[in-house]
Amino acid sequence: MNDTDISRFSYRRRQAQNSVRLSLIIAFVGAMLGTVVAVGLGNISGPESWVLGIAAVVTGSLLVAMSIRPAMATGVITGCLTIYYCVHLNAGAIIAYATTDQISRTLPYMAWFFPLVVFHHFTNFGFYKRPIGLLVNIGPAPMIVFMMADLTDAVGIATVLAYTISYFAFVAFIGLFTEHRDQEIRRAALAEETERSAAALRVSEERFRLLSLATNDLVCDIDLVEGTVWWNEKLLDSYGYDPREFATDPQARENWIHPDDRERVVKSLRAAIANGQGTWLCKFRFVCADGEVVDMVERAMILHDAEGKPTRIIGSSTDVSEFNALEKKLRQAHKMEAVGQLTGGLAHDFNNLLTIILGNAEELAQIHAADADSRWLAETTMQAAERGAMLTSRLLSFARLQTLSPTKLHLSGLFAGIETLVRRTIPENITISLTADPDVWSVEVDPGQLENAILNLVINARDAMPNGGEIIITASNIIIGADDPRRHEDCVGDRYVMITVADDGCGMPPQDIERAFEPFFTTKEVGQGSGLGLSMVWGFVRQSHGFAEIASELMNGTTISLYFPATDDDEIQLAPPEAQQVPTGRAERILVVEDDVLVRQSLVVQLERLSYTIVAAGSAADALQIISESPPFDLLFTDVVMPGEMNGRQLVEVALEQQPGLKVLLASGYSEDPLMRERRLQNPLSVLSKPFRRTELAETIRKLLDQ
User: Fold this and answer.
1) How far is it, in rounded angstroms, from Cα 409 to Cα 417?
2) pTM (predicted TM-score)
3) How far is CA 270 from the centre of its chain?
4) Within 13 Å of residue 396, how many CA atoms lie on the same side as its CB?
5) 264 falls in which pLDDT band (50, 70, 90)?
């Protein structure tokens, strides 16, 4: 039953309940008044009075029952009342006629059969309606038979026959009317329901059409029984296939799956159908009409009939190529970050060892200046230590822990300065060009590290072109907006300067591109490359708040792009430092704080030989105790990274509170975050990167003390 039927049914039921209530009230009042009046006038027999009395009791009882349970009005109460009145009217008419032999005394009873027919058809809502209706249709038959058996005069017989004909004609009319009325109600409800269903279908189809247009997914509906398939417009708009050409070819979708994935996907779907699964999920590569390959994730719902036979497959395929690329970049970034932390820690510890080796080698070279063999051994040791320092410098650059000296400069001037150096590193069969746009923005980078990065890229390009070729180095402006696929989460602004080094060499396969920036990864033969060139470039660019990208194809060359945040500041020219002799001290007091015992001892020896008064401490806590108990120091020389609750930067802050005029020199195996926040301190700090030469140590300390 629909909403319209329910509404009409409820209305009719309420009307019927009111009719039953009104009928009971009239019958009860009529029975009571009839009994009282007839008895009072003495114009009623004993049996008739009992019939009227019983009518009053029955109708009164039904009124009480209806008051208690109104829902029974159109069911039990109507049925009981109808049956009772059939019996009551027949009994009353027979008694009245038998007592008086007058047909006129039966007319009130005979007349009530007509409204009883209407009452039954309009108030009985299913309580044995058909058998009770049959009883009502032949209701006056007992009294008619009784009277016809006794009547002898023609007028009486004609009167009873006329009543009988009128009654059954009325019964037929009411039956036809109610049947026609019910049919009209059903037809109207059916028409209204059909219209409602059509409207709902139109809305549903329109909603489905709009959803299929709005979604970015590829949607299909495969009818396994009819062998037809429906695709939304994304099949043509995004993937180049016309849905109309494949409306009767459900197998066509298998040809769009990448050949390497096709067998796996088809087997998986067939297994899901055979096993009676309701859903199916699969990842595969999809080949577009133009040959482009995209990554897909398809989710499908498999519908079955009552017998469990699969009938339809409704699927939705999502292009996850961009998501997979971002996920791949994220995994690569996490891997590079982890490797960077590892290499940074190793380089830091190695720098401590090189500091000892380099310092002791310099001391030995000075002690054995007159002994050629001993001096040669010491100098060889120094050279090896310096080569180790270069190795750790590259490792620290990859780990973005190298101490940088950024300078604001224009790349046109930088290119002009390094062009000669770059040309000397390549053979004559390779041509090279360095060009910078005239209006290229300035950048803030470490000039030496940038030159080293460009030189490393040029050397890699040279090695990729053993038979000659061309290297093109350019610098240009570029805007990287929020929607640019090259934009990283840690991008600084939108304006960038892009430096590209492109060659037409042998190129790299995809698996090598993914690992190109990893330290110690190289495709060169053993002994021909350390694998640190590109890793140093990557770390330097990232530490300079930029990023790098590689584009390469086998036998089609390689292009490496370095992106640096642009700045509007003018170029700052730095004067080259003047050469000086190794300066010595004048007995100034220096507090050396270093947790590594060997490094601490080496520093103490070197500084004492430079004529300084040295006090050494192995931790920040020991250093603070010495400062509080000793005369003032001229210089605090401390390592940055130390175990315990306090590192070197924190030690400096507390020490400056105790001795505000104290000069400070920090030594570090790599540039860590505490150094980047040194401007928060009241006094400017100097940083000496490990490993350092004796001359560099002496000059730095002397310069600080002379300020």
Assistant:
1) 12
2) 0.39
3) 30
4) 24
5) very high
